[in-house]
């Protein structure tokens, strides 16, 4: 095989390997029916590549080289008598393929199938995002555990159990048809968004192998938009995350203190990212099928009006929150809606709407341990002049706050009241 001897830099090789990981793992998983075995085979192929390529040069078709070596590893695994009896069909298929020099670029991209396998209903919701990071992007359990603030051993065990569940439950790695995509898309989008929000809630941006979770979530959404271009909610999520990214530089002041959205210096917002977000939101809207992420992105778009008009379009924001609540029936949306309502009506009306949530005894128990509820309550009580109630709410919010910069912001507000 012809070599490109000028591509010997280990860092370039590592980047090439990572870009290929999800695509190759998906193809191998489809052929073997076993995600864990495919991972082991691909890991061996990568190890051989990282050892040989710096000395011998990168192959002219690196993906085909990696795929061929990994496929041979799977065949070697399948040659054991036990595996041959259990997986005769897959073994025969692999042997048939082995006589053909296969170009992975000629094979349909199976990464969409891998995404849906990671979010199958049989897979625990809490492990779907980490499983997607490992299978689509090739991150190891320790790096993922660090980003999600979980002990590496616990994360490794959860990932192993999830892959075992895929094999035992017989979850197929098939490219879903249009109806199946729509049925399972919410789970895929939720998993990607949880990757992003994990980064957003951490001051370190969920650092993972010299990148960050936010970048990985954006990359996965970009990939999903290419694999499922007919789904408007994919572009809605893309727009939502880009709006958030556009404000990254304004989230903290020069001292590192948290700055809420309404008080941010919009001159620090990234106009290029806002333009990208607007483009994707318009594209999603043109498909005439509205959903949660499109509405949330539209709310963020209404906030960007402040760049040109000096204030956000609060009337539009309130209408959008009402629409979102009707769609989701989420108390989180109701909390945000109450805070937004105070911008166009008397704060007492907004506070009354917020306190209506506690009429439900079961929901009240949950809200008592939900930091944003107490932060919103403190804000609205302060605007209504209810000093004692506001102080109590601030204290509750501070006690429940895990983010250091947000805690400092709330403590500052409480001190100002005193």
Automatic annotation (TrEMBL):
Sequence ranges assigned to domain DUF6596 in this UniProt record: 185-284
Key word Transcription present: yes
Q: Name one Pfam family in it.
A: Sigma70_r2
Matching InterPro entries: DUF6596, RNA_pol_sigma70_r2, RNA_pol_sigma_r2, TPR_rpt
Protein name, as recorded:
DNA-directed RNA polymerase sigma-70 factor
| GO cellular component terms attached to this protein's record | DNA-directed RNA polymerase complex
Which keywords are on file for this protein? DNA-directed RNA polymerase, Transcription
**Species, as recorded:** Undibacterium macrobrachii
Provide the RNA polymerase sigma-70 region domain boundaries.
16-82
Judging by the UniProt lineage, the source's domain of life is Bacteria
């Amino acid at each position: 095989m012809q070599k490109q001897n000028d591509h010997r830099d280990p860092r370039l090789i590592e980047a090439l390997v990572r870009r290929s990981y999800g695509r190759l793992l998906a193809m191998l998983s489809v052929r073997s029916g076993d995600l864990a075995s495919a991972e082991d085979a691909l890991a061996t192929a990568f190890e051989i590549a990282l050892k040989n390529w710096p000395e011998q040069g990168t192959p002219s078709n690196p993906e085909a080289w990696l795929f061929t070596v990994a496929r041979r590893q799977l065949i070697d695994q399948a040659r054991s008598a036990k595996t041959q009896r259990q997986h005769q069909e897959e073994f025969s298929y692999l042997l048939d393929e082995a006589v053909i020099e296969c170009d992975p670029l000629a094979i349909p991209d199976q990464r969409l199938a891998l995404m849906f396998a990671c979010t199958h209903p049989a897979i625990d919701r809490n492990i779907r995002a980490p499983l997607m990071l490992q299978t689509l992007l090739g991150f190891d359990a320790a790096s993922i555990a660090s980003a999600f603030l979980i002990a590496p051993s616990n994360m490794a065990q959860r990932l192993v159990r999830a892959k075992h569940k895929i094999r035992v439950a017989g979850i197929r790695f098939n490219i879903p048809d249009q109806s199946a995509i729509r049925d399972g898309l919410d789970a895929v989008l939720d998993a990607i968004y949880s990757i992003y929000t994990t980064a957003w809630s951490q001051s370190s941006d969920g650092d993972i192998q010299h990148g960050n979770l936010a970048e990985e979530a954006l990359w996965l959404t970009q990939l999903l938009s290419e694999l499922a271009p007919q789904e408007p909610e994919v572009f809605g999520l893309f727009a939502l995350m880009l709006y958030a990214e556009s404000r990254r530089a304004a989230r903290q002041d020069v001292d590192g203190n948290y700055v809420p959205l309404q008080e941010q210096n919009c001159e620090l917002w990234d106009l290029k990212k806002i333009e990208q977000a607007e483009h994707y939101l318009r594209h999603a809207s043109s498909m005439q099928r509205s959903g949660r992420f499109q509405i949330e992105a539209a709310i963020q778009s209404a906030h960007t009006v402040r760049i040109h008009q000096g204030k956000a379009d609060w009337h539009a924001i309130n209408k959008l929150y009402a629409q979102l609540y009707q769609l989701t029936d989420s108390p989180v949306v109701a909390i945000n809606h109450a805070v937004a309502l105070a911008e166009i009506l008397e704060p007492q009306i907004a506070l009354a709407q917020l306190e209506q949530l506690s009429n439900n005894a079961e929901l009240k128990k949950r809200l008592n341990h939900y930091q944003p509820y107490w932060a919103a309550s403190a804000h609205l009580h302060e605007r209504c002049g209810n000093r004692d109630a506001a102080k109590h709410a601030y204290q509750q919010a501070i006690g429940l706050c895990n983010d250091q910069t947000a805690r400092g912001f709330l403590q500052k507000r409480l001190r100002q009241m005193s």
